[in-house]
């Protein structure tokens, strides 16, 4: 094992490839080899690149590798791909992804299959990244599959996590609220020459205004055009600064968001009729019945674990709910989120240009709330409630 580890540390590519295969196949000798290699060199940086499909992650990783090589840095790339149902191996291979780097001894590329692992990463990815770092590579870049909001495991492996988006992906931008927002160290808007880049950045900023990282780091937003390298140098600078912020605490572990779903507001013509389904057929209990005079609405709250369903029946034909039903019919009216500091959230939203529909005021159950217009949230009326 010591001889094998020494060859890897000296840059022996064949020894490195054989070790990578052993790690990916969970071979018995893999654990002993990793122990012999020891921890990654202190100057090595592992960068995770994640985001929805179609964001141009592969092109961006390729551009990052080129820029790092120009700066005299060595690079290892782990490309995590979907598994082939036939062979179990990676569907996309490194020869397809980055043929232009063939023959460059300063770049090592390894494609590996997820093999059914959730979260966008194979189980052995962390060990593979550690192996490549031990071979002397200055940077190890992990490019994940691209499966959306579940793709958060990369944060447990990487020193810095980069989330890549592109303009015009409205629904995909919204998914980052469900998981990726908490693990991003740097946001990249790739294909920044396309229309809608400013709107995408505004949406990111608005979502950042609703949540704060425990360590105080505010992930920067970098615009890039990967195919011609625009913005890549700026991205590497941002990664360096994020690394400095993260070095004391180590890799990010996703934490529960300080924002929670409070309830889903459903507009109905008759609460009693709706309760025939929710209470009568589903067996749900009503925790609150009241009338909110200022909104001209009757309310029934039904707990669903932590969150609740809020049935909204108009008490006046001129109410907002009555007009909603007349225009769109019964159905989902809004989504309500609990925030730890409503006033601070309101100030951040105003500063970011979000459109608020009211000043904070008391609603059902006496809680303070404010509504945010669908134009600022990706098409959904959003209610923010004081925790």
Give the total of domains: 2
Share of β-strand residues: 15-25%
**Parts with pLDDT < 50 across at least 5 consecutive residues:** 83-97, 116-120, 251-257
> Helix- and strand-based class?
alpha/beta
How do the SSEs run, as a string of H and E? HHHEHEHEHEEHEHEHEHEEEHEHEEHE
The CATH topology of the largest domain corresponds to Rossmann fold
Description:
The chain is of the alpha/beta class and 387 residues long. It is elongated and about 80 Å long. It has helices at residues 2-9, 13-24, 28-37, 57-70, 94-97, 125-134, 170-175, 197-208, 232-246, 271-281, 320-328, 342-352, 374-377, and strands at residues 45-50, 75-81, 107-113, 139-143, 160-165, 186-189, 221-223, 260-267, 288-292, 297-303, 308-314, 331-339, 361-362, 368-372, 382-386. The strands form 2 sheets. It has an 8-stranded mixed beta sheet. The relative contact order is 0.10. Helix 5 links the parallel strand 2 and strand 3. The protein has 2 domains: 39-246, 3-Layer(aba) Sandwich (Rossmann fold), CATH 3.40.50; 260-386, 2,3-Dihydroxybiphenyl 1,2-Dioxygenase, domain 1 (Roll), CATH 3.10.180. The protein contains 13 helices and 15 strands. The termini are far apart. The chain is 33% helix and 22% strand. Residues 83-97, 116-120 and 251-257 have low confidence and may be disordered.
